[in-house]
């Protein structure tokens, strides 16, 4: 069984995929529709989720936070213009990289010094950074759900408890 941090990351991947699968049922116009909300469109929220996770993984892999943010900024325009199917492919590639990183770790509590350009220095652990990625994803999937309701659509359940049960479904005899 995976450790708790890896399990939470797997939940994050599962929840992202549920949202992506649902968003693929929308028309491209609705997915990219400009609206007044936390983000200007559902597509921008999903791109933001990708870009932030991309940046955190680069930080975990040894880039400074400033370098990692610059890496994300360099691909932002490209990522934001992708149709959902192509962004889904990018998420799969990123997830593979992230899981590979996690599998190489011998100590999830290894301390890392972050130099956040806006907040300064802070020592943290690999596990804490992964938990931040998961929490950040949960927050913004909530934004997507709210925006879908504004557009007259429903969303999908991505609660952690729903994930527990989705993994343990016992087929009828």
UniProtKB/TrEMBL annotation:
**Does the keyword field hold Metal-binding?**
yes
Q: Which UniProt keywords apply?
A: Metal-binding
**Source organism's superkingdom?**
Bacteria
InterPro entries, sorted: DinB (IPR007837), DinB/YfiT-like (IPR034660)
Family recorded in the similarity comment: Belongs to the DinB family.
The entry's protein name is Damage-inducible protein DinB
This chain's source organism reads: Neobacillus rhizosphaerae
């Amino acid at each position: 069984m995976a450790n708790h941090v890896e399990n939470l990351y797997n939940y994050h991947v599962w929840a992202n995929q549920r949202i992506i699968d649902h968003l693929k049922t929308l028309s491209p116009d609705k997915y990219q529709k400009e609206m007044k909300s936390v983000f200007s469109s559902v597509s921008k929220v999903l791109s933001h989720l990708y870009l932030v996770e991309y940046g955190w993984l680069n930080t975990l892999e040894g880039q400074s936070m400033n370098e990692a943010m610059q890496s994300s900024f360099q691909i932002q325009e490209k990522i934001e213009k992708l149709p959902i199917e192509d962004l889904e492919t990018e998420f799969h590639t990123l997830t593979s990289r992230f899981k590979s990183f996690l599998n190489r770790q011998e100590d999830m509590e290894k301390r890392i010094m972050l130099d956040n350009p806006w907040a300064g220095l802070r020592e943290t652990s690999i596990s804490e950074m992964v938990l931040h990625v998961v929490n950040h994803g949960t927050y913004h999937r909530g934004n997507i759900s709210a925006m879908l309701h504004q557009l007259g659509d429903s969303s999908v359940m991505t609660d952690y408890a729903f994930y527990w049960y989705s993994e343990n479904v016992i087929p009828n005899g």
